[in-house]
Design brief:
This protein is α+β, with helices and mostly antiparallel strands and 234 residues long. Helices cover 39% and strands 18% of the residues. Helix 2 packs antiparallel against helix 5 and helix 7 packs across helix 8.
Amino acid sequence: MNAPLPTNEAERLAALKEYHILDTGTEQSYDDITALASHICNVPIAMISLVDEARQWFKSRVGLEQQQTSRDVAFCAHAILQNEPLIIRDATKDRRFADSALVTGEPHIRFYAGFPLINPEGLALGTLCVNDRQPRQLSAEQLKTMQALSRQVMALLELRRVSARLADALDQVKTLQGLLPICAWCNRIRDDEGYWDQIEAYFHKHTGADFTHSICPECLEQVRPDERHRMISS
């Protein structure tokens, strides 16, 4: 049975793209987590799965050859519909998955436990999941540990997103290192389209930086000398 789309699907997909993670190469930090998940749960298959428009793509995987599968057959497409782990003890007895090609054929999934990867905005990007070819269940300690590991996956993803944003901001700053057309009278800056912006608006648009306003001691002396002397004496 195909999973319904999340109600926030457009927002979720837009957020997923911000991480610049899809179709990237293997990374040890992610592979260490799937190896731990497989060991802790004593299962042959573990994956970090990210769900985009039409597929689930595996950033890291243990015990599985495929790099991705169709979203139509993905257990994880169901797991991202909730914030709590999705535990399927025996997929052959669950009407949502009994006829799935992943159950009736390779890798013959019976047990599935998917732990949603929830970003700071509350959007589920995918899961850290473990699978077995026989029915089973997880202990309370295994559940607790898997939830901790899923948070570590999300922390790695967040670090990647922040790094990408910082790189973009640096690129924007570098574009401001040349000569800027600025009005000598009002200090407005002319943009590439010929419009004149206040300097605060221009820098915010190009770097995301906001301004706070104060007055330097030299200007304060010229504009309000009495106030300057009062501040010094106090």
